Every structure is written in structure tokens, then in C-alpha cells.
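This entry is listed below:
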Amino acid sequence: MFTFIKKYLSDNVALPLFEKKKINKGLKINLNSFGNLNKKKIFYVIRRSPGAGLFSNLIYVLNHLKIASRHNFIPFVDMQNFFTIYNEINKVDKTLNSWEYYFKQVSNHSIDEIFKSKKVIITNNTFYKDFSHKISNREYRKLASKFIKINKKFIIYANKFINNNFKKKTLGIHYRGTSYKTSANHPFPTTKKQTLKYCEILIKKYDYKKIFLCTEDKYIFEELNKKFKKKICFLKNSYRSYHDDAFKKYQRKNHRYNLGKEILIETLILSKCQGFLHAKTNVSEFVKFLDKKKKIKYFYLDNGTNSSNEFIAKWLWYYKNIFPSFLGGFK
């Protein structure tokens, strides 16, 4: 009975491919001493394990960079000793640190040097109440300009795609389905009917000639392709599924690395669209973060929020999708 409840009636959280190894038996959350190097420096090791989506991790890191800057600590993002859901067993681009798959390290010090140093603060694993999810403002952009550098190969790839496909006015769509249909306290995805209708209205009203589609949900991917076949473009190799299984199956080489790579490139592309149709996600927040000059017209897919009860949340979207609005269904 317990196994059934855990599998079918509760949230399925994505987990790393392997268990965390101990870097030091006497590890403390606050100040540690691992050796005698750099006696006058204080290192601030940012950890998040197992973490969440790529941009959730980025927002978490930015909030800790704010703390490090305030106290003149030297920051370092350690997603090598503290595994995330994106970590691969073998090195990717010569590193085991999954942060460095996608971004440059936030300081010039090496992980080996830091763990031989006299004063090392290792953060705990908490997203504090005073941490902000909203990073599309001057304060966080200033922090990012100093510390956050996206690996150039992803920017080059995104720009090449944009140059080849965005010849006309483009509507970007980020549709978050699969796990969002059953996640407690998360925004409800729109239904197939709602999504198609909203797209038709926007295309007609604002004269969008092209659509760039970013979604992990194969149902909506197929429906939008069927409806807007001549207008639509997308990354061909991005992972899509009918189920919430992106982190449960391992179907290709470096699958988890590729999941992060794909959403990063797709978000860079979305930030160059003239219009953006989206739900409330960390992807949409990062698009706004990149849109410094506020050139994009935003359209919010608001379908309400799922129950905070994880057992009810597992089924509520499906109920609301079937029943009419006067019985609690979607409008």
C-alpha cells in the first residue's frame, strides 16, 4: 500500500543519477577548515543538491551570490561534490561540475584549491524565504553581469537558429505540461483547446508569421504542429514525452546534460521573439531577465493554480479538463 501511494498518489521528485559522496566526515554547514591555504580569504561554496530545473538552480545561485557579494566572500558553485539532477557520471566538457556544463565558474579558484583552504563556508540546501524568484530587475542583472557567463557555444547555436528561422515576426511559446499537470501548488497548464484558441487569437491580432515552440509535452507539441505546420519551428532534438519521465528514463548519451542544454538554448531563442506566450515558470522569468530593453510583448497563460494537497493535485487537472466549468472544470 505504501509503495502504491508513493508511486501514484504523491509527487515524483527528480533525483540525481547517483548518491552524494562525502567530501569530509566532519563537514559543517557554516565555517570549515580543509587546510592552510589562503588564510586571509573566505570562500563561499554554493551547493544545491539535488536541486531542481536549470533556471531554478540559477535563481538559487544568484540569491547566494548576493550574500557572498555583501560580505566580500569568494563564491564558488559546487555541483561536483553536491550532485544535481543534471550531473552525468562521466565528465562533460572536461568537468564533473554540472554548473560548468552551462555556465562559467563564478570565480577563478579551483575546487581542489578551495578544499585545501583555511576558511570555507558551505551553504546549506535551503531556498530561504527572503530569496527572490524574480530576477528580471537591475539588482540581479548587475550581479549576473559580474558572475554569470553562459558558455559561448550555446549562444552561438541559438544565434545561428535565430538567423536561419526568424525572418518574420515570431511568437515564442513555452508550454509546460507533463509534471505541471500533477504538481501541487504549481500553475495549471492550459488544455489543448485553450492553447490552440489563444494561439489563434494572438496570431490574428498581432500578425505573427512564425511560431517558435518550446515544450516537453508531446501531446501539445503534436497538436500545435498539426494546426500551425507551415508557421512553426523548434529544436528538433529536444526531449519530448507523453509522460513525466524526462528524469526517470535515460534514453541517449549524456541525456541529463542534454536536458539542461536544450532548455538553455530554447530560452535564449525565446528571448529574441517579438511575442512570448507562457505560463508562470522559471523559464519565463529568465526570458524576462534576458529581455533587458523590454522589447518582447508578453502573454500570460493563466489557468489557475493546482491544489496544495499533493494527493488531490495528482488528479485535479484531469478532472477540470473533463468536466464543464459549472462543475469546476476549466473555462
About this structure: The chain has a mean pLDDT of 93. Residues 12-147 form one domain. The first strand starts at residue 31 and ends at 32.
